[in-house]
Amino acid sequence: MEKLIFNTSITAHLFKPEKSNQKILLINSATGVKQQVYFSFAQFFAENGFTVITYDYRGIGLSKPEKMKNCDASMRSWGAEDYKALTQYIIENYPDYKKYCLGHSVGALILGMNRDSEIFNEFIFVGTQNAFVGNLKWRTKVEATLGFGIAQPLFTEILGYFPSHWFGLGESLPKNCAYDWRTLILNPKSTSKLLEKTIDYSKNLIQKVLVIQAEDDAWLTEKGVKSLLNDTYPNLKPSYRLVKTSESEKGEIGHVNFFRSYNKKLWNIILNEIQ
């Protein structure tokens, strides 16, 4: 594992295989999820011949500034700048490799913010959707409406950043990331609304995409998943895989646990797709 530092203040890690299959996999993480969560997953793919890159968006994990209050990162800059820095690195250093990108949750939503997304041969979406409250399950809908409608803007304004960990929502987020997340949840256009605030390349993407949804993911619904593929990425060519809790060694997958080492056997779903 090799550490990489980009001039956009992004810290990444490069996992190199002993014998390369001339394929590279970039992992775009979920909101507030540190790259270490994906290390075992990345190592598994490196052991199977893939070159793999993990990284933290600005404001998260190893890419976090000393003072969150002064961090001006947004979900839009995650896509247009941070993710862009990684795709440029891949273009420059692995021009002849087959290229794959895994987008976990928001990691799939930012694809449309970077023209370089066109370089990938195929995408994998894990736990991602248009997360508008109208698409959510009843209990999650109530929690999201109250949380993002009242609690999130209140604490964000008071502190200058959003303490997501107080609410069990991962790492604390820079102020503008919190407001972009609020757009995804409360605006009926969700991801498409966020893309209106940047240069939108989402309709340029015509690749295959394997869409993985966990049966017990409280934040995901079929309605939200289909909304993302039909409205935001209508030209992608999706195939769908519902992962049941009975397939998990611990009987749980949820929104993040697909990437835990105890669910290692589930990783073959992706390996078999891109190998």
Q: What does this molecule look like?
A:
The structure is a single chain. By secondary structure, the chain is α/β, with parallel strands linked by helices. It has a single domain (2-131, 195-274), classed as Rossmann fold. It is built from eight helices and ten strands. It has helices spanning 39-47, 75-93, 106-109, 138-159, 175-186, 191-195, 222-232, 268-274; strands at residues 2-6, 10-15, 23-28, 51-55, 98-104, 122-126, 161-162, 173-174, 208-214, 237-243. α4 (138-159) packs antiparallel against α5. The protein starts with a strand and ends with a helix.
Whole-angstrom Rg? 17 Å
Characterize the largest beta sheet: strand count, sense, and whether it forms a barrel.
8 strands, mixed
| Count of structural domains | 1
Helix content range:
25-40%
Name the descriptors.
alpha/beta, Rossmann fold, eight-stranded mixed beta sheet, two-stranded antiparallel ribbon, 8 helices
Write the layout of secondary structure elements.
Layout: E1 2-6, E2 10-15, E3 23-28, H1 39-47, E4 51-55, H2 75-93, E5 98-104, H3 106-109, E6 122-126, H4 138-159, E7 161-162, E8 173-174, H5 175-186, H6 191-195, E9 208-214, H7 222-232, E10 237-243, H8 268-274
Parallel strand pairs: 3-4, 3-5, 5-6, 6-9, 9-10
Antiparallel strand pairs: 1-2, 2-4, 7-8
